[in-house]
Design brief:
Layout (H helix, E strand, L loop, with lengths): L1 H28 L6 H34 L3 H31 L4 H33 L2 H12 L8 H17 L25 E12 L2 E12 L3 E5 L6 H9 L6 E6 L2 E2 L5 H6 L2 E4 L11 H7 L9 H11 L1 H5 L10 H13 L5 E5 L7 H16 L3 E6 L2 H7 L2 E6 L2 E7 H6 L1 H7 L3
Parallel strand pairs: 3-8, 3-9, 6-7, 7-8
Antiparallel strand pairs: 1-2, 1-4, 4-5, 9-10
Helix pairs in contact: 1-2, 1-4, 2-3, 2-4, 2-5, 2-6, 3-4, 9-12
The protein binds adenosine-5'-triphosphate and magnesium ion.
C-alpha cells in the first residue's frame, strides 16, 4: 500500500498550497497588492503536479482497479474523476482571469470568487478521496492489486513520477515559495508549541546557533534560527519544501552568507571563519542532491573529502569507509557517475566522513531514493549514531528522521516553530497532521 502513502503525502503538500492560496485571497480582499507572478507559479505547479502527475496516477492505476473490485466504487469515483477531467479547464479559466486583473483592477472580485471556488473544490476533493476512496481501496483491493499499483507509483524511471519529474515539481514549488508574499511564505502551517518535558541531556553542547539570519537577495530565507546540538546527539531538522533547511546547513558550513546571528562550535565562535576552516574544525556536510563528482573515480571522490586532513591518515580512513560501504570498494576505480542514486548517497556520506567530522551534517540523504534504499540510508545513520557520531539530520521524510533522532526542530518559513524529543514530535498532533500525513 505504498501508493496510498504517496497519495497521502501529495495530499498534504497540496493542502498546504491550497491553504496558502486562501490566505493570499484573504489578503487581496483586504487590499493587498496583486502579484500575477505568484499566481502563475501556483498554477504552473498545480498543472504539472496535480493535473499531469497526481491525477493520472490515480486514474490509471488506483481508481481503474478499484472500479473492477467494488460496486460501490463508481458512486465515489465518478464525481472525483469528473473533477480530474475538469481540472485543466478550471486552471485555464483562472489564468485568463488572472491576466484580466493585471490590466483591469475591477476584475479582482471575479478572479477572487473563481479562485475561492477552485480552492473549495480542491479541498473537498482531497477530503473525499481521503475519507471514502482510500478506505474503500484498503478494504477491497487484493495483495496482487497493490503490487501492481505500488509498482506503478514507485517506478523511478517513469516520466510522470520519476526523479526527473520530482525535481521539476521541487523547482516549481521553490518558485511558488520564493514568490509567496512575505506575510505567508510556505513551509506548512504553524505547528504550535510543545510543553517542555524532556530531561535536559547531560552531554556537553557542541554547537550553539543563535538568531541565524540569511537572505537570497530580498528573500529572507532564515529569520533568526536558534538551536543547539550536544555531543553524541542526533538532531533532526524537519520541515516542508522551502522551509530553509538547506540554507541553514549551508550557512552552518559557511558556504551561504549569514546576515545576522552567531555560531559557536566546540568552544569557539566560528561565525566569521571560512568554510574550509570550519571543515578543518570538524563540520562536514553531505550536501543536498549528493553532488558527487561524476567523472572522478569513487576513490578520488572520497579522497577529496579528506583534503583538509593530514596525508598520513587518509589511507586508513579510506579503508574504514570501504569497510562500511563494501560496494564502494568494489567499484573504487569507476567514475562516481556510474553509481546508482543510493550508492551515490553512500559515497556522499563517505566523503563527509573522510573529513573526520565532529559534527556530521546530512541534507536529505533519503531524497529521491526507492523505499528500500531509504531504509538503508537510515540504517547507515543509525549505525553512525551508535558509534557516537554527532549528527544534524535534515529531512523531509520527517517520520523516519524523528524516529531515529534524540531531538528535533520543526522549521517553517525560516523559523523554528517547535522543538522536542523525536518521540514528542512524532506524537504531537499538529506535527502529525502537517508533516507526517496522519
Ligand atoms: N539560490 C536561491 N535563490 C533564491 N532563493 C532561494 C535559493 N535557494 C533557496 N531559496 C529560497 O529560500 C527558501 C529556503 O530554501 P531552502 O532550499 O533552504 O529550503 P529547504 O527547506 O531546504 O527546502 P527543500 O526541502 O525543498 O530542500 C525558499 O523560499 C527558497 O525558495
Ligand atoms: Mg533543502
Amino acid at each position: 500500500m505504498q501508493a496510498l502513502r504517496i497519495i497521502n503525502e501529495d495530499h498534504s503538500n497540496l493542502w498546504r498550497l491550497i491553504s496558502t492560496i486562501d490566505h493570499v485571497a484573504d489578503e487581496l480582499d483586504d487590499g493587498a497588492p496583486f502579484d500575477p507572478f505568484f499566481f502563475n507559479s501556483v498554477f504552473d505547479y498545480i498543472e504539472h503536479f496535480v493535473d499531469r502527475a497526481h491525477h493520472p496516477k490515480e486514474d490509471d492505476f488506483l481508481f481503474r482497479i478499484l472500479r473492477l473490485r467494488s460496486d460501490e466504487a463508481a458512486a465515489i469515483l465518478d464525481p472525483l474523476q469528473r473533477e480530474h477531467r475538469e481540472g485543466p479547464g478550471s486552471l485555464r479559466a483562472l489564468r485568463t482571469l488572472c491576466g484580466e486583473v493585471t490590466n483591469d483592477p475591477t476584475r479582482r472580485p471575479a478572479f477572487l470568487a473563481a479562485l475561492r471556488a477552485f480552492t473549495a473544490m480542491q479541498k473537498n476533493h482531497i477530503a473525499t478521496e481521503e475519507k471514502y476512496a482510500m478506505p474503500l481501496a484498503r478494504r477491497v483491493l487484493t495483495t496482487e492489486d497493490w503490487a501492481e499499483i505500488d509498482r506503478a507509483f514507485l517506478d523511478r524511471n517513469d516520466p510522470l513520477f520519476g526523479d526527473q519529474a520530482k525535481a521539476e515539481f521541487v523547482e516549481l514549488y521553490h518558485r511558488v515559495a520564493s514568490l509567496a508574499p512575505d506575510s505567508i511564505g510556505l513551509g506548512g502551517r504553524t505547528a504550535g508549541h510543545l510543553q517542555k518535558s524532556s530531561e535536559p541531556l547531560k552531554a556537553e553542547v557542541l554547537l550553539t546557533v543563535t538568531g541565524m539570519q540569511s537572505c537570497y537577495g530580498r528573500i529572507q530565507a532564515l529569520k533568526g534560527i536558534s538551536m543547539e546540538v550536544r555531543r553524541g546527539e542526533t538532531v533532526a531538522l524537519v520541515g516542508a519544501n522551502g522551509a530553509g533547511k538547506t540554507t541553514f546547513l549551508r550557512a552552518l558550513s559557511g558556504v551561504q552568507p549569514m546576515s545576522g546571528g552567531s555560531i559557536h562550535f566546540d568552544g569557539n565562535d566560528i561565525t566569521n571563519i571560512r568554510s574550509d576552516l570550519r571543515m578543518r574544525r570538524g563540520i562536514c556536510q553531505s550536501p543536498e542532491g549528493r553532488q558527487v563528482f561524476g567523472p572522478l573515480s569513487i576513490e578520488d571522490n572520497l579522497r577529496l573529502g579528506a583534503y583538509t586532513q593530514p596525508k598520513h591518515q587518509v589511507e586508513g580512513d579510506l579503508e574504514k569507509i570501504f569497510t562500511m560501504f563494501p560496494i564502494l570498494k568494489e567499484k573504487r576505480k569507476l567514475p562516481a557517475g556510474t553509481l546508482s542514486g543510493g550508492q551515490q548517497q553512500m559515497l556522499a556520506i563517505g566523503r563527509a566522513l573522510m573529513g573526520r567530522p565532529k559534527l556530521l551534517l546530512l541534507d536529505e540523504p533519503s531524497m529521491g531514493l526507492a523505499p528500500l534504499l531509504v531504509q538503508e540510508v537510515f540504517n547507515v545513520v543509525k549505525s553512525l549514531k551508535a558509534q557516537g557520531m554527532t549528527i544534524l539530520l535534515v529531512e523531509q521524510n520527517a517520520f523516519a528522521a524523528l524516529a531515529i533522532a534524540d531531538r528535533g526542530y520543526v522549521l517553517e518559513t525560516g523559523k523554528v516553530t517547535l522543538t522536542g524529543t523525536g518521540q514528542e514530535l512524532i506524537s504531537n498532533e499538529q506535527v502529525r497532521a502537517a508533516y507526517l500525513g496522519m
